[in-house]
What does this fold into?
Amino acid sequence: MAPSVLLLLLGLLSSSSSSSSSSLPPPRTSFSLHSAERRLVFSLPDVHNYSTLLLGNNGSTLYVGARDAVLSLDVSQHDVITLKKKVEWSPSSKEITDCHNKGKNRTVDCPNFIQVLQQINSSHLYVCGSFAFSPHDAFIDTETFSIAQSHGAKSRCPFNPFQRNSAITIGGELFTATTTDFRGVKPQISRHFSKDGRPDISQDTSVNLLEEPTFVSSSLDPEDGKLYFFFSEVGKEFSFIDELRIARVAQVCKDDVGGEGLYRRSGRPSPKLLCSASFQKSFPSTSCRTCSPSGQQRAALPQTLCSTASSPPSAVFSLLLFRSSAPQSAVCVFKLQDFRIVFSGSYKSFDMESHQWSLQQGKHPYLGKCGQDRDSDSILAEVKKTFLTSDSVKPAGDAPIFVSSEQSYSRVAAMTTKAANGKEYTILFLLSESGFLHKVALLDQGPRVIEEIQLFTQHQLIKNIVLSSPKGVLYVGTSEGVTAVPVAKCSVYRSCIQCVLARDPFCGWSRTRKLCTAPDSSADNMIQILDNGNVEEECDGQTEASANTEINVNLNKVVTLDCLKPSNLATLIWTSPRFKVLPKKLFIQSAEGSLIFHASTASYGTYRCEAEEGGHKQVVKSYYVQQIGSPHPRSPPPEVDHMPDIKEESDDESIMTEVPMVPVMTPVGDPEDNLTQNKGAESTVTKDKAKTNNEEPTIKNTSHGGGLDSTRDAQSWKEQLNAPTKSYYSELVVVSLLLAACILILMLAGLHVWRERQKNSKLDDLSSPEDGGKVNKCMESVPALSCAEDAGPELRV
It folds into this structure.
């Protein structure tokens, strides 16, 4: 009996999903678009839309179907992708003009987009392209890489280059699921290049077996000789006001020989079932995005996003979209055995007159079965209206593996790997619409997003992924090029703790080589903890402590100590032997993790940046800050339990001036000689200080192996911290009062001068030459209509 096959369903679920499903944690490590550590990009300036990918049989060649071209790439080297051969295949000018006359855009719709790329036999590739909205197919010789023959290919790939389809080759026979008309509204599943004298067959289109489907992928179950096509369509069996798109799986008999008479070229209608992933009372609509079998060899389908095993596959991963008012991304697991049970069960029958579905009465052995003989017309007529299973397939555990509300995934690939403990783990690679590739490990404690890698920034209409399990490389095709991403790069973890905390089944710490690498056959020499083990105990003595980075800086200069988080889940903590807790008044920790402070005698010393993750601590960076011009580098003071705490200062604190500490020396000999010597020393220090004030801080790595005695050094630190400081508060008050008195006297003097000038100016205005200097007293009173002194003789009547 073939091993059970798991179907992984990923989609958007409503916010009312069951709380039993775990939430997807944030990625532990992130790599930006400009980071060259985790990706390798190939592109040609004259080629676009690398839409279809196919791995060659040798695993060293990647065939790419692009716009108007097919490429053969050499992917044998892990650090470079080179072009081996290229064949151009584009429509003529007349064909492009005809496409444009049909209402299509010349540059967007009318080129030849390769949509099917399959290995038809050991020497030839089969390709099918949209070819200016008139599908054509061709055979390409893999040795000469030239087109052997080309002709029309209706019903083998869609007219519309942006309409999804699915194709698979088995034993030289081609099975396709696509639309067959210009408008893209007539879907059909067909078999071409049939062997053993069997005719090419297609499903009868006289009945609507498929309702507006979006084909995604297909896979073979070799034990039962059946093909499974994964797609989404409108569910007509539900009586809803709005159309409901749901996820479907259709079963096709690989060796179907058709019917008799009128049905000779009509295959048996494919029974289909519903992938049910609703939770609680919600019933979100589902649309299939991709289905991917998992195994150990190459991918057999351009639309299958993961490897397919040569033996019965161990797992199939399918990507579906569940749409509701509050969408969420979720992953579900389905068992292939459950598919077999449902397809062998009861069916619903469609009434052509009432357009209603009803449960089929009785058991019919021909429903859901594959036969070697031709079916009679009566059987085919019955199957035409009885092709929908009455039961649906539910996910394992009736709940998703995980749920994510931040990402909308569009492609998925999967593989299994054996860890150092001999246990196999499943690894998922999920491509989001925003351009990030997430690597998710399904561990016993739940899913873990080990890393995210940014592959593109602009929205990509065309994208595809193919996983090569033997080479351990994932290939992503977009409109811009082909990106190769190794499934793991353990060398990015440079310490034992970081290597183990990654919880990556692909990576472990080698005790003998002292580096992070892939697990080898000897588990005793490998440290790999995928559960909640003691990381510090296992990694004790495996990583050498990094040397201190020495920073020389002048007084009152701003010091910035950089520290990068080793992972997104880590928290940075700065410590120093001088302080139990770094005072917020003196130190600022930026959002990026850097420590910023002013250089002073109280802030010189050793600082360590520690990363804490999951209760585990590790020193990421260590600095030793000292003053420029120090005659001897002082060793870091030991941690002291009774270091004085620096209290937070109040708003009305006294203004203090810090005085540099000068060693006190006992005078010997004549006091005048001592005074002269001291003055000379002071002059020398002043010159040296003036010389070094313009110097920039210098940084040097040192291990601080030597230095002063630790006891004397600690005592020196204590004396500096406890040394009294001189206050100039009283002098400042006196100077302020004298300044205020001077300003007041100047203001009074200025006011007096101004008043005298105003008085003299008024006296000049009141006297005139005719009056002989007589003062006009009317001008000194309040203005009125008339004045008695200026009036003439009284007029009498």
